[in-house]
Amino acid sequence: MITLQDIQEAHDRIRPYIHRTPVFTNETINKLTGASIYFKCENFQKIGAFKARGGLNAVLQIIERQEANSLTTHSSGNHAQALAYAAKKVGLPAYIVMPRTAPQVKQDAVRSYGAQIIECDPTLEAREEGVRQVMASKGAVLVHPFDNDRVITGQATAAKELIEDLDTVLDAMVAPVGGGGLLSGSCLAAHYFSPSTSVFGAEPEGAADAIYSLKSGVVEKPSFINTIADGLLTTLSERTLAIIHAHVKDIYLVSDQEITQAMKMIWERMKIIVEPSAAVALAAVIKNKEFFAGQKVGIILSGGNVDLAKLPF
């Protein structure tokens, strides 16, 4: 059980290494949705994504407890960068298993932090097998991208900051969901620091599993995977599902076209760079604006690591 104190201690632990990212609003988007939306801009975070928080919280505790001499994980990009960044900060080698289809901008960033990339096929099975081989050959400790209490607790600090930095109480909070680390952390932060705030997930139709897992209560696999939201391709774990099942009201599905339109709107109207995965939450609010109309809604913009040579618009 992740406690309120765990989240507070995680925030204190990682604070020297992260940005307290800004919260933006946009009049045009508010008029379109009929809601008052507050964007937590984790695209401005270290390594360009919220995942720096969870990676640092896990790695700093590993160092404090002298649990490892090297680190490993598997990731399509943002957690890979987070672990590479955290490992560099504490002086440990990191071995990152990445699907060869991961965006080049994310691979380049991982290498820039000094981590070694081991390429694999773009499947969860291949990623997990790659990590097992690294653990066996290097003696590295796995920092899982979401199936890890320390990582989830670190991710919770983004929503904690959003709640603290507003002079109003949110009616709702929406976060994208892939493996569930951000959504788990966000709903825990709301549970402890703003219990009247309802939390919702947003998921691509082309990687839909969390919505069915929430309904069935068991981890479901997607029927197919085909989406531009490359950061949301993984399925929930038993750990993240348990938290989401207890604290998340619902999960909304959006199409790639809706994701692209929301992403373009953020670029054009807010003048900030976000990746497709980060636009999923706004796409869900726009698609369900009748539900969110009149509400104060917090949205976690999860990251901005987009390949500028391959924009979807």
Automatic annotation (TrEMBL):
Swiss-Prot/TrEMBL cofactor(s): pyridoxal 5'-phosphate
Keywords from the named record: Lyase, Pyridoxal phosphate
Translocase recorded as keyword: no
Residue ranges occupied by any Tryptophan synthase beta chain-like PALP domain in the UniProt entry: 14-303
Gene Ontology terms: biological process: D-serine biosynthetic process
InterPro entries found in the cross-reference section: ACCD_DCysDesulf, TrpB-like_PALP, TrpB-like_PALP_sf
SUPFAM superfamilies, per database record: Tryptophan synthase beta subunit-like PLP-dependent enzymes
Domain of life: Bacteria
Pfam families attached to this UniProt entry: PALP (PF00291)
CDD domains named in the record: Thr-dehyd
Matching Gene3D superfamilies: 3.40.50.1100
MF annotations from Gene Ontology: ATP binding; carbon-sulfur lyase activity; D-serine ammonia-lyase activity; L-serine ammonia-lyase activity; magnesium ion binding; pyridoxal phosphate binding; serine racemase activity; threonine racemase activity
Family: Belongs to the ACC deaminase/D-cysteine desulfhydrase family.
PANTHER family, A to Z: SERINE / THREONINE RACEMASE FAMILY MEMBER, SERINE RACEMASE
Full protein name: Pyridoxal-phosphate dependent enzyme
Organism of origin: Rhodocytophaga rosea
